[in-house]
Amino acid sequence: MSGTAEIYDAVLSPGKLELLRAWIRHQSWFDGDPTRLEQVTAYRFVDPDGEVGMEAFLVSDGARTFHVPVTYRGAELPGAQDALVGTLEHSVLGRRWVYDAPADPVYVTEVRRVVSHRDTAADHLAVEDGTVTPSPVNVRGGGDGATGDSDADAAPQVIRVISEENDAEADRPLIGSPGTLSGTWEDADGSHSAVFVVVS
Known about the structure:
Layout lengths: L3 E4 L4 E2 L2 H9 L13 E9 L6 E8 L4 E9 L10 E7 L3 E7 L4 H12 L6 E4 L5 E2 L4 E4 L15 E2 L21 E8 L2 E9 L2
Keywords: ATP-binding, Kinase, Nucleotide-binding, Transferase
Protein name: Maltokinase N-terminal cap domain-containing protein
Pfam families: Mak_N_cap (PF18085)
């Protein structure tokens, strides 16, 4: 299991969704109305060193669901200006620099580990009262790819526009297949499963 992510009862300025809407509108994979985006759910990973926060959002504009993993840092990540989503003020942790996760080496290392070890997302620990709850998204790594080889320098392919179709003949990665990070979640429309990340 990927450990336990500490969740603070904190005030954020701007809010996470506000920050994401402003950034997503400029991304090549998004051509909708960012004002319609709402959070569906999210899951987390844990930095073994306890320095970098990692959270992956599923947001929807009512027609499509988008997968947006980010990292939170207490200082700027050198050389990653192009991947900066923005900054926010956290009432407990102070200023946080938010980055598009595939550009952050801590995220890349952790998502590769989760996939390789067939691990899961982190549980959530409410810091104020010590309550631990399971991840709202049932995430599972599919194990190493078919060859067992992995290019540690290659960035993982984050699936941005979520598709629940699982058709190998359409050249889509199969849910739960080797080299993938897949997830299952619930919303008002029922249960959904999809591939989130593919690693080489």
